[in-house]
Write a structure and sequence with these properties.
The protein is of the alpha+beta class and about 110 residues long. The chain has helices at about 25-30, 55, 65-70, and strands at about 5, 15, 50, 80-85, 95-100. The longest helix is centred in the first third of the chain and has 7 residues, at about 25-30. About 30% of the residues are buried. It binds FE2/S2 (inorganic) cluster.
């Protein structure tokens, strides 16, 4: 069972147990992390934007073109940004650390 650590914009760390096959967004929502996910994983909002720790970014599957296009509209974009709804966790990602951006752009509003 992978463990994911969310780092909130104020520096607080939250360690959460993920089930194999859950996305970062799924886990965040289950634990009440401030990740809105307003389009529920349809890649239409970018409110699930997370900044993946540098050591972990290269271990993820490469983002699709659709994900990259949506990320371009995310607030606070970095080179290790991903959409939390598109990153599926597994045991190989046990210990992954992701930062929450300080704000989101919600394109669904
Ligand atoms: Fe909308 Fe991820 S939940 S893009």
């Amino acid at each position: 069972m992978p463990i994911i650590t969310f780092i909130e914009p104020d520096g607080r760390r939250r360690e959460c147990d993920a089930a194999d096959g859950e996305t970062i967004l799924d886990v965040g929502q289950r634990f009440g992390i401030d990740l809105e996910g307003s389009c529920e994983g349809c890649m239409a909002c970018s409110t699930c934007h997370v900044i993946v720790g540098e050591d972990w970014f290269s271990k993820l599957e490469v983002a699709s073109e659709e994900e990259d296009d949506m990320l371009d509209m995310a607030y606070d974009l970095t080179k290790t940004s991903r959409l939390g709804c598109q990153v599926v966790l597994n045991d190989g990602l046990d210990g992954i650390v992701v930062n929450l951006p300080s704000a989101h752009h919600n394109l669904m509003d």
